[in-house]
Amino acid sequence: MKRIGTSTLTGNKVYFTEADSFSQINYNVSNYELLTKIKLSLILSDYVILAANHIFESKITFNVLKENSILLESGIVIPDLRDECRDFFDFIEIEKEQGDLPNLYRRKEQQFKDIAFFLHDHVPKVVLWAAAPTSTEFRQTLVNDLLSKDSPLRKKLIGIRKDLLAKLVWEIGNTTFLTREKISILSGRYLSNKKGVLERYADVMYYLSGAAHLESEPVIHPSAVNWCVEKFFNISNALKARSGEHEAFHSLLDKLTISTSVLDRLPVSELIKFREEDLAKRFRCKWHKIIEQVKRTGEIENETNSYHQMIINMFEELNKIISVEKKRKTYFEKTRKILMLSSIITSIFAAFIINPALGVGSLLIELASIDPFLTSIERKWGGMELTIFCSRLQELPDNLKSYR
Question: What is the pTM of this model?
Answer without folding.
Answer: 0.84
